[in-house]
Specification:
Layout (H helix, E strand, L loop, with lengths): L1 E6 L3 H12 L4 E4 L6 H5 L14 H14 L9 E6 L4 E5 L2 E10 L12 H4 L4 E2 L2 H4 L7 E6 L5 H8 L4 E6 L11 E3 L3 E6 L3 E6 L4 E3 L2 E5 L5 H4 L5 E2 L2 E2 L12 E3 L10 H20 L1
This protein binds flavin-adenine dinucleotide.
The site of flavin-adenine dinucleotide has 32 residues, from helix 1, helix 2 and helix 8.
Length: about 280
């Protein structure tokens, strides 16, 4: 049983990880080894005290150096589900279940909108995890949304199992090129009854499929943690960064505007200290 699990390797998650490490807690930190895409993409950051005018890519490099100096490295796995249990939480990341006393959601804000039908058909043909559910589609026809180049190997993995893959990429020049993979225009909706039956593209084209894999960086918080109170794309927290689910805290862009690094770092710090209190109780 871990003391804590942190989901997210942006400024909020890093700030919490540093503080938990300073208190010598046993925790797992999930995210990307590239830390934060958003920080990386910031041309110049001028409002983080003490750093003057700094390119985002340089700040990201400094995050990496600071983490390494503290003996920290994010585990590069996507968390797809959190299940509250009796006094603890179970966290599912790519086929492995981890048990923890506390959890921090530092997942950033999900900019992409869900597909119509995605929430309703999740677990009934809609999946966020190729390695968890891919085996169910041996010899079948599936659609895949690939949100970033880092998921291309998962598309290739699925193409090795399914007979046919319809691939919608969320970025230009997707590198997947296999005989059973057909690239398609953006998906608008997924439809079905008890199971996924078809996807619908933005131009109205309907394609019959047995399943839809959605491989994007983030999962909507309400989908990740059942029963979590949300307000639009944001997680509702109190001044201790606590959510309505006991033991679950949230920090950074996922809790609301302004979307700023200083806010994310501050909330990550508050959350870590409150999680320490929660553990002590
Ligand atoms: C172009 C641009 C310019 C900006 N300029 C500024 C600026 O000048 N000043 C400023 O203060 N802010 C700026 N920002 C905003 C700033 O980058 C964000 O406020 C900050 O990165 C938020 O940090 P975060 O930790 O909340 O989330 P993020 O930085 O978004 O990090 C979230 C992390 O969580 C990971 N993650 C999400 N879901 C999962 C999951 N299910 N499993 C595992 N990992 C997961 C993601 O992969 C990501 O690594 C800018 C943003 C952009 C896009």
């Amino acid at each position: 049983m871990y003391d804590a699990v942190i989901i997210g390797s942006g400024p909020a998650g890093l700030s919490a990880a540093i503080n938990l490490k300073l208190h010598e807690k046993g925790f797992l930190w999930f995210g990307s080894r590239d830390y934060s895409d958003k920080v990386e993409k910031s041309e110049k950051i001028a409002n983080y005290p003490g750093l003057g005018l700094i390119p985002g890519a340089e700040l990201n490099t400094r995050f990496d150096a600071h983490a390494k100096e503290m003996g920290l490295e994010p585990v590069d796995k996507k968390v797809t589900n959190v299940m509250p249990a009796d006094g603890y939480l179970m966290v599912l990341a790519e086929n492995e279940v981890y048990e923890t006393k506390t959890l921090l959601l530092a997942t950033g804000v999900l900019t992409a909108k869900s597909y119509e039908g995605e929430d309703e058909l999740l677990g009934r043909g809609v999946s966020y995890c190729a390695t968890c559910d891919g085996f169910l589609y041996k010899g079948k026809t599936i659609a895949v949304f690939c949100g970033a180049p880092r998921y291309e190997h998962e598309v290739e993995y699925l193409a090795g199992i399914a007979e046919k893959v319809y691939l919608s990429a969320g970025y230009p020049n997707c590198g997947v090129d296999l005989p059973n993979v057909e690239k398609i225009a953006p998906v608008r909706a997924v439809q079905g009854g008890m199971k996924v039956a078809q996807i619908v593209l933005h131009d109205g084209t309907e394609i019959p499929v047995d399943g839809l894999f959605i491989l994007r960086n983030a999962v909507a918080p309400g989908t990740l943690v059942p029963g979590l109170a949300t307000d639009g794309p944001h997680i509702v927290v109190d001044r201790k960064q606590a959510t309505n689910v006991p033991g679950v805290y949230a920090a950074g862009d996922c809790t609301g505007r302004p979307y700023q690094i200083a806010k994310a770092v501050g909330e990550g710090n508050v959350a870590a200290h409150e999680m320490l209190d929660y553990m002590a109780k």
